[in-house]
Please model this.
Amino acid sequence: MTKWMKKTPPAEQSSSEPALSVYQRALRGRLLAAPVVPPPAPWRPVFEYTYGVPVGGLLGIGFASHPDGGHDLVMVVSHDGHGLFDAVTGEKIARDHDPDPEDSTPDGVADLTCPGLGPVAGNRVHIAGLFGGGLHTKAKDGWFLEAVTPAWPNDRVLLSVDGGLPHSGPYGEQWWHIFHAAYSELRAFGFSPSGETIAIATSSDLSLWTRHPARNNEDVARR
Model:
């Protein structure tokens, strides 16, 4: 005796996404038309290269404060280990090529931290990036950062003083397109807790800007 089974009907084709409104098209067009420009004064680049310094297999970044001067440090976690940069000079001040396996990536603990190194050894640093977490997107004095994707999948990072989208004010005066991740994945972006540093990390590079005065008339770091 043949047992008939009730067949499940095929899933229906989902309807197309609704068309963008006139307002949405205008906003998207304004974002697409904004060229990449450097952040305005008082921000200055920490590295001389347009896309910062290469960090292959970058997974995430986090901020710490130097125990002596109190200025910002940036910790980088990658497939090649851990590194620590001075966020004022760009100098790589510590490196661990072979961290303990249980601490090599932040996803091994609930608070997404990795052990510090160099001058912040003995402390744990919160890492934002591939495994989650986040950095500050607003500084206390009104600077604001956000990521937009008007042409998926390439993220653009915007800096502004007008509170964020929709950026109705003039481009180059109240908002700036400072980074375009056209060649690798955006991992993390944000301000340091002090508000003195902007960091943007992709899967292949780290870019930093600071408004901390240069030391001894130094130029941007050449790494």
